[in-house]
Each structure stands twice: as C-alpha cells, then as structure tokens.
Design a protein that fits this description.
Elements: H1 3-8, H2 12-23, H3 27-36, E1 44-49, H4 56-68, E2 79-85, H5 97-101, H6 103-106, E3 111-117, H7 129-138, E4 143-147, H8 158-161, E5 164-169, H9 178-182, E6 190-193, H10 201-215, H11 218-222, E7 236-238, H12 247-263, H13 266-293, H14 298-308, H15 314-323
Parallel strand pairs: 1-4, 1-5, 2-3, 2-4, 5-6, 6-7
Helix pairs in contact: 2-3, 2-7, 4-12, 14-15
Length: 324
C-alpha cells in the first residue's frame, strides 16, 4: 500500500495510520512526511490555549462548525483538530477525552480529529504536534485547530506554531491576572472570556481589558488597519460555548485576522517562524540523542575525565564532543 498516495487521495484510514507512525517517530513516518512536505504550506493553523476548566474543548467543538461554513465557497472548508491531552507522569498514558467530547462533529467526513498525549513534553503541546499538523495540511485540511493542554505559566509554545492564537479565559478560575504573569496574554491574537453566563464575568473581562490597554498605546487601539501593513489589536469576545453563544462572532474575528495576515506578509512570516521552530526542535532532539547515545562511549569518558581534572571546562567539553 502506498501510504503517501492514499493520504493525498483523501483516505482517512491511511491518514490515521500515517499519524500514528509520525507520533511513534518511525522511519516510515519520517520518510512519508518528507514526501508530503511539498504539498503542505496552505493550511491556516489556529492555536487555542488557556487554563484548565475554561471550556476550550467545548469552544473548539462549536468553532469548527462555524469555520467550515464559508458563504463564498462551493464546498465546506475541511477542518482538522489536534487536541493535546496531558499524560500521566507515572504511566505515560492519557485519557484522550477531547475525542469523546467532540464525538458530535467527528462523524463529518470533512472534519478530522486527532487526540495526542503530551508524553511529558513541556509548553502545552505534544512533541510531534507540528509534524502531525504538516501531514494534515498536506492531506488537504485548510484549517487546523490545535488545542493545547490547560495552560499554566509556561504553555506559550503554541504561538510559535499558529498563525492565529486564541487565549481562552473564564470567570471564577482564581487569580484574574494569572494569565498576565505567565505571559499568556502576550501571545493572544484573540481573547475570549468563555462561560460568560457565570458570576464574575464583568470583573474578568475588565481585568483583561485593563491589561490589553497596558500593552497597546491609544494610537494602536484607535488606528484603522492600513492595507499592506500588519496592525492588530486583539479583540475581546464573550462566549458561552455550551450553547454556542458568541461563537459566530469569534469565527468572524478569526476570519478577520486571517485576512489581516494575508493582506500583509505576516502570514508568510509566521509560517517561516513555525518552520524555524520545527527545525530547531528536531536539531535539539538529534543533539540530545547523540549525547545520550555517546554517554557510555570511550570518547565521552575521556572528555569527562578531562573535565574532572579541570583540563576542560564544560563548555569546551561540549564543543569537543560535538566535533567528534
């Protein structure tokens, strides 16, 4: 069976098998991705992040249907969802509950949902998230939504992979300025206050607005977008995802941001940033792998003996190990 050819011709079974091979980091998966790479580069990647309990999965579930329905297209947009779930620190397994929560939309042939275990990776993503996204892009999915693990104070890696980053907050989750302390507001292209029917929504929205104004000048906030120049102030939207309230407005803002990126060269810039991040990630993994494999080698032991004897500094040791 030609896995690559089957994926390019729309086989969901072949795509599922390929994604499993990519996640497992097999040679076959890597070689297939090499062949598919030239077919990628068309999809718009949307990152959805925010604290655990903010309703990200429910919001994504509603947003998918809104984004598929584009009036000027003959056929609905094909949308893929990559939902990253936390892994157990003991077993490495994950519940993959997002697939269960999105069961209502998973039957649609133009919607593809892939749950991924974070497998201990930091930053709110799984290690092979971008590789999976590239395969989905090559398979013809025009919009790819990546839902991260619930954000704490470091889960901002999504901003390196997404064209549009949606940060979801909700009232009643604790410290209203926790997001600002973690830097999560700095990565937002669109801010969402979900569960807007809950008490405390006005206070949560007010705090977010105050922080937003701190990050942008009056000129920025009042300025019109100039054609050919990327200017964007993150809008703040209230939603009640459980009944779909506000989700159409959110989809409209996503489309408006897509247009703003396309009218300037920012879309290409973010795509290049994503590829740069991926290459650096693969390079770091390769270097770590080499260092780990060589740890018990004679050369490694000789270099470390020089470090122990103060004949080499740790920096010099790294250079010598990498040069061999």
């Amino acid at each position: 069976m030609d896995l690559v050819n089957d994926v390019l011709h729309g086989s969901r079974l072949a795509l599922t098998r390929l994604l499993t091979k990519i996640e497992d980091e097999t040679i076959e998966g890597q070689e297939a991705l090499d062949k598919l790479f030239s077919y990628s580069g068309k999809a718009h990647v949307i990152g959805v992040t925010g604290p655990t309990g903010s309703g990200k999965s429910t919001l994504v579930n509603c947003l998918v249907n809104e984004l598929r329905d584009v009036k000027d297209r003959e056929k609905p947009q094909k949308v893929a969802v990559i939902a990253v779930d936390p892994s157990s620190p003991f077993t490495g397994g994950a519940l993959l509950g997002d697939r269960l929560r999105m069961r209502a939309i998973s039957a649609d042939p133009d919607i593809f949902i892939r749950s991924m275990a974070s497998r201990g990776a930091l930053g709110g993503l799984a290690k092979m998230t971008l590789a999976v996204a590239l395969a989905l892009d090559a398979a013809g999915y025009g919009i790819i939504i990546i839902e991260t693990v619930g954000a704490g104070q470091s889960e901002v890696e999504i901003a390196k992979l997404a064209h549009t980053t949606i940060v979801v907050e909700a009232p009643g989750l604790g410290d209203d300025i926790q997001a600002a302390k973690s830097g999560i507001l700095e990565i937002a292209d669109i801010l969402v206050v979900n569960k807007a029917d809950q008490p405390g929504v006005d206070a949560a929205e007010g705090a977010l607005k105050a922080m937003l104004w701190m990050g942008y000048s009056d000129t920025d906030i009042s300025a019109e977008q100039e054609k050919g120049k990327y200017q964007w102030v993150p809008p703040l939207i209230r939603t009640v995802a459980i009944n779909g309230e506000g989700v159409q407005k959110l989809a409209d803002e996503v489309r408006r941001h897509m247009a703003a990126l396309q009218e300037s060269r920012e879309w290409q810039s973010r795509t290049q940033q994503c590829m740069s991040a991926f290459v650096k990630q693969l390079l770091m993994r390769e270097l770590q792998s080499r260092a780990s494999l060589d740890e018990n080698s004679k050369n490694y032991q000789q270099v470390m003996a020089k470090v122990y004897d103060k004949k080499l500094s740790p920096y010099q040791a790294v250079q010598e190990l990498l040069s061999n």
